[in-house]
Predict the 3D structure of the following.
Amino acid sequence: MPPLTFESAARSHVGCVRKLNEDRVLSRPDVGLWAVADGMGGHQAGDLASGMLVDTLAAIELLGSGYAFLEDVQESVQRVNRTLVAHARLSRPGTVIGSTLVVLLAYEGHFACLWAGDSRAYRLRGGRMEQITRDHSMVQELIDSGALQRADAPGYGRSNVITRAVGVNDRLALDVASGPIERGDLFLLCSDGLTGMMSDHEIALALARDGIGAVDPLLVTTLERRAKDNVSMVIVSASDSPDKTADPPVRGFG
């Protein structure tokens, strides 16, 4: 398989209800790094937390191996987590300065995705969309336990309660998923401002129809539905590299 090249498009909007956009997005196809961070609404300085995450990730340089690249991203997120927790302790008791986070890395024909919270990553391949991430949320825990049916989840009254985020605890556990990338793959990273207003089926149809150009119709639809939250997304497209003479990818994030 020839080497891959990436194109991406990103959008972030305050929505129709909130006065402040606490989401931040990162799009760096030059190094193969993309992210969406959703500052925790209802808490203090959520925009500080999401901004610090994206600024820190924006400074990362591509390293000599997929393992080193992923390790650098993980350590950068952990460093921000420690800073946010320490900053909150200097504030009023009970202060939380947090953010959900989903990050996508691409290296030598493979992807790695890491996340904390309910911002999601999807992959569209061959017309079929798969959710790569698994929400760290009360709703997901109830679904896993059988106490709540997935079909009833959109109407559940505490759908915004998350169980993990950057900046909340001293010890941050980041989940990681990885795998090969195929030519034509589309990846979507998004905050819950998108998935709270559109179904997976609707999102998949838009991705299949418009590719990375789906950022605009997806945003328009959420705004037409009076988006209750900030809405942010990054769409990444993988295609053959024009450099056909380059060595094929031989390893990823192992």
Summary: Strands lie at 4-13, 23-28, 33-39, 99-107, 110-116, 120-125, 128-131, 175-180, 186-190, 231-240. The first helix runs from residue 46 to 58. Residues 245-250 have pLDDT under 50 and may be disordered.
